[in-house]
Design a protein that fits this description.
The protein is of the alpha+beta class. It is 37% helix and 21% strand.
Length: 76
Amino acid sequence: MAITVYSKPNCPQCELTKRDMDILGIEYETVDLTQHQDQLERLIGLGHRSAPVVETDHGTWSGYDQDKIKGLVSYA
């Protein structure tokens, strides 16, 4: 399953999300939203207003959510 973490610099929730995924061995791609305005606009259009935004084959969520991160282990 493809997992993308859309983040921004100096974002504690972004760093926690990536740290937890690293600890759990979940592979993901990181996209810096400050460098990709088109992606930022797309995510805002989906209703997201805070970083990080995690996108998987099964949907998206925003913010740090430890339970959802742990739920990705079964797909990794």
